[in-house]
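Let us practice reading a record.
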Amino acid sequence: MPSESVRTSAIEPPCDSAYFFSNPALAASDGIRQTLDLALRGKTAYLIENDSFYYFAPLRIGSGQVGVIRFYDSFRV
């Protein structure tokens, strides 16, 4: 697979993501971490995990990324 060049933003994320992953109440799966990491690097990404759908999109203002928007939905009826 060819390597992909990823352009990162000069603006750091507004929060310390390590806090969210080290806090058991806010713990996330490896798949969510990897998907969030893609969005933090400016890519739109989604994840289907068990019966859940996660969609992450970079939030940009001007020419810089200021955060990530996450949408979640469950496939349960």
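A brief commentary: The chain has one domain: 17-74.
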